[in-house]
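Thread amino acids onto this structure.
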């Protein structure tokens, strides 16, 4: 009789754990991704390049990840022809950046239970943060039209940056209906406060230099979750 009681107790506990796990998520994660990026600076023509990122993720809840990101990439633009840049400027920036950002997914703020449409849209997110970008530029410093004129600016600099992020996170669940992996697909537009992104700091009295340097990225990132298991106040995934 004790064996039967023990058996049913184990089955009941396993069933209860299985049901409770629909609310559970893991606190930590690591990730890596690739972007296709392009600069927006005072140089007329800009070129696209790949960039790469590594991330450490803290899940404040399953719909509010807070991340520390290391990013490396390349921005470039300009050329010797007037069509590429009217002053013959061109640059290549092999940059590195460290960024801290958070993404607010709709699931954190809506009741999506028993609604198939909200179940789909709950993983859309908007986010922002702050970081620092270290610029390492190779720059055409002398004008090709007026060789005696030297374009002002610095080849190496550090700027404060603010990313604005939009996207969707595809959560991949394990056998306990807990998110074990995720794939983020998104758009990132970053403002860099300074004149270091292209290495030129041309005076606005002589050149068109009236906009903040910035760049955009189309990004895909893969994440793996681990660590302490925590319960959320809503089902993360409805299951049967």
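Threaded sequence (240 positions):
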């Amino acid at each position: 009789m004790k064996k039967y009681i023990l058996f049913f107790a184990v089955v009941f506990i396993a069933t209860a754990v299985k049901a409770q796990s629909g609310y559970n998520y893991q606190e930590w994660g690591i990730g890596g991704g690739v972007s296709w990026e392009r600069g927006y600076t005072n140089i007329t023509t800009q070129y696209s390049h790949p960039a790469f990122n590594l991330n450490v993720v803290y899940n404040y809840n399953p719909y509010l990840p807070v991340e520390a990101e290391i990013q490396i990439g390349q921005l470039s633009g300009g050329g010797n022809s007037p069509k590429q840049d009217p002053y013959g400027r061109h640059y290549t920036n092999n940059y590195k950046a460290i960024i801290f950002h958070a993404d607010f997914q709709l699931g954190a703020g809506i009741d999506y239970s028993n609604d198939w449409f909200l179940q789909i849209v709950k993983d859309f997110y908007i986010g922002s943060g702050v970081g620092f970008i270290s610029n390492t530029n190779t720059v055409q410093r002398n004008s090709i039209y007026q060789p005696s004129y030297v374009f002002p600016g610095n080849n190496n600099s550090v700027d404060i940056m603010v990313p604005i992020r939009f996207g969707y996170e595809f959560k991949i669940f394990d056998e306990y209906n807990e998110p074990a992996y995720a794939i983020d697909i998104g758009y990132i537009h970053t403002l860099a406060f300074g004149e270091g992104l292209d290495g030129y700091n041309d005076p606005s009295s002589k050149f068109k230099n009236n906009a903040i340097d910035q760049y955009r990225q189309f990004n895909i990132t893969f994440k793996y979750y681990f660590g302490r298991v925590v319960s959320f106040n809503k089902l993360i995934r409805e299951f049967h």
